[in-house]
Amino acid sequence: MNHPLRQHIEEIISLTDEEFDFILSHFEHVKKRKHQYIVQENEIVNKEYWIIKGCLKSYFIDDTGKAHILQFGMENWWITDYESFIKRTPSKTSIDCIEDSELLYITFENREKLTAQMHKMERFWAKKSKVGRIALQNRILSLLKNSTKERYNLLLEQYPKLFQRVPKKMIAAYLGVSRETLSRLTP
């Protein structure tokens, strides 16, 4: 049976068995329990995570103590604090597990080594980066131009399974509204 990471990568590039074994040798496997952190604010992040199983959230806490969720991560998604990972600066976000999770991670050094030795992976990450930038742009545009109800419906349309896995309080933090406002919009 195909490894799930291989299936994910082969959505973009094709691999031989030897190439995939070489790629996988650069990753480590880790299991985390619900509420465990994989990134904490102000630490230098050295790992990029690929989610095999589970659900995570990336967020920051503002000066008033309010949580703002930037991103959810589910199966087949990549997650880290990318500014910290790439620039080697303190993380501005925290990432923790909403559910028990199973992850693969690659260190910054291993990712650099892998892309230098295997141009197929350089192309893979370039494509994933472009897709990520498009998703981020669409999220920003949605926050700027759509009503709360429109943002809620769009999220529900794009990620219906998320609503069974994430408490409404977190959905509200992602949409940038109070739990009470969200309650008025939902059945």
Indicate the CATH class of the domain at 4-120. Answer: Mainly Beta
* CATH homologous group name of the domain at 4-120: Jelly Rolls
Sketch the topology as an H/E string, one letter per element: HHEEEEEEHEEHHHHHH
Multimeric state? single chain
Give me the count of strands.
8
Q: Based on the coordinates given, report the CATH architecture of the domain at 4-120.
A: Sandwich
Strand content: 15-25%
CATH topology of the domain at 4-120: Jelly Rolls
Unreliably modeled segments: none
Q: How far apart are the termini?
A: 42 Å
Helical percentage: 40-55%
Q: Give the helix/strand class.
A: alpha+beta
Commentary on this structure:
The chain is α+β, with helices and mostly antiparallel strands. It has a domain of 117 residues: Jelly Rolls (Sandwich). The chain is 47% helix and 22% strand. The chain has nine helices and eight strands. The strands form two sheets. A four-stranded antiparallel sheet has the order 1-8-3-6. It has a four-stranded antiparallel sheet with strand order 2-7-4-5. It is globular and about 55 Å long. The termini are far apart. The mean pLDDT is 94. This is Crp/Fnr family transcriptional regulator. InterPro entries: cNMP-bd_dom, cNMP-bd_dom_sf, RmlC-like_jellyroll.
Q: Notable features of this structure?
A:
187 residues; Jelly Rolls; single chain; four-stranded antiparallel beta sheet; 8 strands; alpha+beta; globular
Give me the secondary-structure topology.
Elements: H1 4-9, H2 17-24, E1 27-32, E2 37-39, E3 47-53, E4 56-61, E5 67-73, E6 78-79, H3 82-87, E7 94-97, E8 101-107, H4 108-117, H5 119-145, H6 148-158, H7 162-165, H8 168-175, H9 179-185
Antiparallel strand pairs: 1-8, 2-7, 3-6, 3-8, 4-5, 4-7
Helix pairs in contact: 4-5, 8-9
